[in-house]
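To: structure subgroup
Subject: Chain for Friday's discussion

All,

I'm putting the inputs and outputs inline so they're searchable in the archive.
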Amino acid sequence: MLGIAVFLFVWQVGSLNFVDEDEATYAKTAQEMVTSGDWIYPRCNYTDFIDKPPLIYWGTAVSFRLFGKMDEFAIRFWHALVAVLGVLATYLIARELFGLKRALFSGLILLSSLQYFYQARMTLCDIPLTFFISLTLYLLLLFARRGKARFYYMSVIAAALAVLVKGPIGILIPALVAALYVFISGEKLFAEKRGFHLLAGLMLFFGIVSPWFIAQFAHYGRLFLTEFFIHTNIERAMHSITVSSKPDPFYFYIPVLIAGFLPWSGIMLYSAGTAARRCRLGFKELRAGRPELKNELFLLIWAGTVFVLFSVFGMKAPRYILPVFPPLAILTAGFFEEKEGPRLILPFLFSVILAPFIIGAVIAAGKFFPSDAALYLPILAPSFIILGAGIIVSSFLLFVRKEISFTNFLMTAFAAYTAFIVFAGIHYNRLTISKPFADIIKKTLRPEELIINYKPLYGEGFSPAFYANHRMGFVTDEQEILALLNSETKVYCITSGKDLSPIKEKVRTRTLDERMGRVLFTNRPESH
């Protein structure tokens, strides 16, 4: 299991340029930590960056130091290993609740679910957050079952690390899950000295998270409170901060979850629904102590808390829902662990109906979005076709034997993701501009010279600044860019061909490169 996870998450993990500009932002912040030596006050593009706690930057910065270079492999390697640990945490939770066979199935389902695989290969906050939440709940589970206080205090440490990854959500999710589970199930966590342990746990938690937060407040004052707590956390929870004024609907994560849990989505929907029905019908028996129902209830509360919480929040993104994947993987594994039974038509239908949509998406993309399809289908089409065909075959194999079907689902995912890694390695870097432009700039760049992105497209960020290891400015006003280009300072400018045309009429420029509709030029017409 762990060997498959290491292969899927680590193999060729440094072969692609940045896929997500948030990843570039975090990498740039870590780069400046290493070059400046200041690991306490994050800065991005040489500007104070009050957005996320430091653990994601520290992990990348340590990796830079460990490998002695600042490249995509160093950025992603440590993060991929955290994703492997997330699979291990899921395995341990399932083993504690249901035994070894369910644990093995659970870990394999998680590592082969589409979104978990994809996020494991990009350094963002969501995989580490998912791991530390899972670890927190695993340790709380051990505490509830063993009654040993050390597991409780270890869970507090894990929750504190979750907060240092992404802020208050790191403690909010496990706290809500634990509270709801205790309330509904009637579980008793503390046999004695409840007040002492709660107080000691709070002191330990704040002892870990407080130093960094206090340092930020001492340095920035009210600005830190405003930017970090109000803007980054409260405002994003209340409403969407996007280019669109229309908020995402409450059901945003339903299609995201179905797509992200491929190829297991149909079985997941059936398994979660069946578990919820069992807990509802057996509620009285559950409070009387039936362990199998309590175990399923724990997973349903975990999954439901994450799903409802992020659905209510205003700011939505597909990757935010990732902490729901471990409990759903364990619930899904239960279907394959059960003995053969006659009621297979529903899981078969839930699963097989997804395949035409996957294959149809490839066909529709080529027909309705021919320009985008020409660029991205060479990367995605092989994986989608493998997924679609594999789901059809695996669904019919349910009627032969569940374990054979499970193996085929797993092989389908493995083949599809291997194809994605191979074809992305062949095609993707040709679709990006940041690294090729930065490689040209670095050949002659001096510290006092400027890199400017003029009228940047939505989503363009700090990747050129990271690759060039230099500050980059963003300009949208024509008079401002003309003033910079007419100055004595050499300027490297990235813009579109359309926006360059009026500039060329007023300033002498020299085009250095052009690709994907973007142009790199300088205000020094001479070649030397």
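Points worth raising on Friday:
The two ends are 56 Å apart (CA to CA).
The CA atoms of residues 88 and 499 lie 51 Å apart.

D.
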